[in-house]
Amino acid sequence: MSDPKNTHAVDAIAAVNKGHSVEREVTDVFSALDSPRRVRLLSVLWEADGQLSLPTAVERTVARERAGERTNGSDRSNERVRVSFRHVHLQKLSAAGLIAVDDAEERIRLTVESEHLRAVLDSAARLTQSV
């Protein structure tokens, strides 16, 4: 019997990337959520009504990491986080259809509805706890 919460997450993922198979979407989205830093960024964006400047997103993500969430302490400087966003995390989230990045304006915005993102983040948290 399938878990209705996971079914809701699959429906939410299907809403993320129209035009692709659900299996591919699930793989892409969960691959993008494989990093605690990317999950933190999505949560920061969600709490900011879906859009922030890159510097603000970096500052808020670093603040969360310093507040006690698990991360490698050497990666906490704003500059290192900004570089990791630019070279790894933003590309991964964008490829999964979760965010859009305006390089000229240095702005990041969510590309999914809030309830869909919340369902995906909740499902990812449950999967992480059950492992």
Q: What is the number of E strands?
A: 3
- Total domain modules: 1
Return the structural class.
mainly alpha
**What is the terminal-to-terminal distance?**
19 Å
Give helix % range.
55-70%
* Overall form: globular
CATH architectural arrangement: Orthogonal Bundle
Layout: helices, strands, pairs:
Layout: H1 4-16, H2 22-32, H3 36-47, E1 51-53, H4 54-66, H5 78-95, E2 99-102, E3 107-110, H6 114-130
Antiparallel strand pairs: 1-3, 2-3
Helix pairs in contact: 1-2, 1-6, 2-5, 3-4, 3-6, 4-5
Explain what this protein looks like in three dimensions.
The chain is mostly helical and 131 residues long. It has a single domain, classed as Arc Repressor Mutant, subunit A (Orthogonal Bundle), CATH 1.10.10. It is built from six helices and three strands. It has a three-stranded antiparallel β-sheet with strand order 1-3-2. Helix 1 crosses helix 6 and helix 3 packs across helix 4. The longest helix is centred in the middle third of the chain and has 18 residues. It is globular. The mean pLDDT is 79.
